[in-house]
Amino acid sequence: MKKFLGTGVALITPFKDDRSVDVEALRSLVRFQKENGINYLVVLGTTGEYATLTNEEKQLVKKTIVEENNGALPLVLGIGGNNTQAVADAVQNENLEGFDAILSVSPYYVKPTQEGIYQHFKKVSQSSPLPVILYNVPGRTSSNMLPETVARIAKDCDNVIGIKEAAGDIVQAMKMIDQTPDDFLVISGDDMITLPMVLAGGAGVISVIAQGFPKEFAQMVQHGLSRNVDEAYKIHYQIAPSIDLIFEEGNPAGIKSVTKKLEITQDFVRLPLIEASKELSSKLSEFVDQNK
Length: 292
What we know:
This protein has 292 residues and is of the alpha/beta class. 46% of the residues lie in helices and 13% in strands. It has a single domain (2-224), classed as TIM Barrel, CATH 3.20.20. The longest helix has 18 residues, at 229-246. The radius of gyration is 18 Å and the shape is globular. The two termini are 33 Å apart.
């Protein structure tokens, strides 16, 4: 579990202008993370636009990242859904070579009860050959995993090692930290409140903005884990304006605008998402220039 202390990055999937997967840009992006202090990588999450990728493309993305990473950083694979049996089958049948854990989102759209969420993850846990990290993101799933439910899953499912907590509620995060076992990882899924969560006892972050500013964000998280509060907040306030900006028109349009400015990828996304507006791209470009 120590593999997942610190800063993880939810990788985008770069596209060419014909919207095909840009393999070379993806390799460059992985190298950029490896060279700038990121602790682990998350593959095929929401930020990776997995919902618009074909099965063949998902395998291509996995293969490319595993090859380019070459064992340097731990890798986490996103496998989730709102059909419990389908998720269980996926974690059993997926090629997991090169991966260290699974990130599994709470069932979306169907709005299960807390008991339904518990039973879902109990089934996923029993089916998974790898450690499982839960993912709570009520803004996308329309249901919230309560701290009591997370604590129950943590107690009953030995291979559930943590949660990416993205409710944006620091009080709820603190309750999760308090109610779960000491070795259970409560990981921020909200870039803006990462530092307060870390200082409250959280394990770090799975970040979007760190993809564009890996060295700075990883340093902030490490300062937080080491309780160097003043140094950590200095970096937080330096980066904070960009966090608001990258989510202004949806994710991953904003962060792709940043990686385009950094000349790592293009900014193309797939419908129903659209690229960041010229106004937003200009603001992000200015921010990058000011913080080189």
